[in-house]
Amino acid sequence: MASAAVKPALAAVFGCSGLHLSDAERSFFRDADPLGFILFRRNVDTPEQVAALVRDLRDAVGRPDAPVLVDQEGGRVVRLRPPHWRRAPAAGRIGALAEHGSAAASRAAWLNARLLADEVSALGISVDCLPVLDLAHPGAHDVIGDRAFGADPALVAALGRASCEGLLAGGVLPVIKHMPGHGRALADSHLELPRVTADLDTLEATDFAPFRALAEMPVGMTAHIVFTAIDDRNAATVSSAVIADVIRGWMGFDGLLLSDDLSMQALGGGIAERAAAALAAGCDVALHCNGDADEMDAVAGAVRPLDPAAERRLARALEMVHGPAPFDRGAALAELADLLGDTGPLA
């Protein structure tokens, strides 16, 4: 008798509320079977506690390879902080090295990402949501700021590629973000919906270009931003025009596409409506981060299991990850500190 086909996981990634799973969360995750999970500061105390939480999240869905994500960029966007973890530099600090030569900046980007991979994979975390490929634009909202490598599309693409390669060398999946480009926004999409009015030719030559250059990367994340030249009503996350024509079309990205966090305030409507709209527009996975039980239940009721295209993209992403190559952490720390001109203690 043929065995029954395994049902695909739910096309959702969820957060959880605290340092440990509650019985209610464990039961919900078991029944909903989301693709994976994402960790935030509220979920982090010690290395031992984080590793135990990661194991419990995977146990809840019965999949030891369920993706577990974290935003460990460096600079001000980090979930793992001293004293237990290294204070990694912001992307802008690495990008500034290009003033003295692009080779030094690329090497620093690779080393920093390889160290980040070493740090998160030790906890069982398998996906780090970087690099930020958004451009630094004078006068834009500082929600991106020094999270960007710089203002030059070619430099951002080169340092983004080095970061992706460093993470992959450490057995961790990168996520290019925020597609098709957040740097020009004049508002913080965590709080309101930004509108970018630049014309399409300008966007293709600038903000969109780094994403096109890295279109073969395994995972991407959308931006909650309206680009009036493409769709003057809908944010990219919920715009079939932006996803089909720009991200999948002009950029040529065929990786797994995550929405940005659906609980951010840029998107209108209820949380279930946002989740359904993101998938209908072409996102593969709905990302919900705040750990609110009622909202997660609503998202779970609004989204489908991964469709065949998303399963194919997920499989391709996982095929890009191999066991970490041999790595001398002490030497990498020393070389990165030398490149950055750091004289403080290494961690």
Largest sheet: 6 strands, parallel
Overall pLDDT, averaged? 95
Distance between the termini: 56 Å
Low-confidence stretches: 343-347
Helix count from the secondary structure assignment = 12
Number of separate strands: 11
- Secondary structural class: alpha/beta
Which range best describes the helical content: under 10%, 10-25%, 25-40%, 40-55%, 55-70% or over 70%?
25-40%
Shape: globular
Element order, helices and strands?
Answer: EHEHEHHEHEEEHHEEHEHEHHH
Across the major sheet, the strand order is 5-4-3-2-1-11
The multimeric state of the shown protein is single chain
Radius of gyration from CA coordinates: 19 Å
**What fraction strand?**
5-15%
How would you explain this protein's 3D organization?
With 347 residues, the chain is of the alpha/beta class. 39% of the residues lie in helices and 10% in strands. It has helices at 23-32, 47-61, 91-96, 102-121, 153-169, 200-205, 209-213, 240-250, 271-281, 293-302, 308-319, 329-340, and strands at 10-14, 34-39, 68-70, 127-128, 173-174, 176-179, 195-196, 219-222, 226-227, 256-258, 286-288. Helix 4 (102-121) crosses helix 12 (329-340).
Question: SSE layout and pairings?
Answer:
Blueprint: E1 10-14, H1 23-32, E2 34-39, H2 47-61, E3 68-70, H3 91-96, H4 102-121, E4 127-128, H5 153-169, E5 173-174, E6 176-179, E7 195-196, H6 200-205, H7 209-213, E8 219-222, E9 226-227, H8 240-250, E10 256-258, H9 271-281, E11 286-288, H10 293-302, H11 308-319, H12 329-340
Parallel strand pairs: 1-2, 1-11, 2-3, 3-4, 4-5, 6-8, 7-9, 8-10
Helix pairs in contact: 1-2, 4-5, 4-12, 9-10
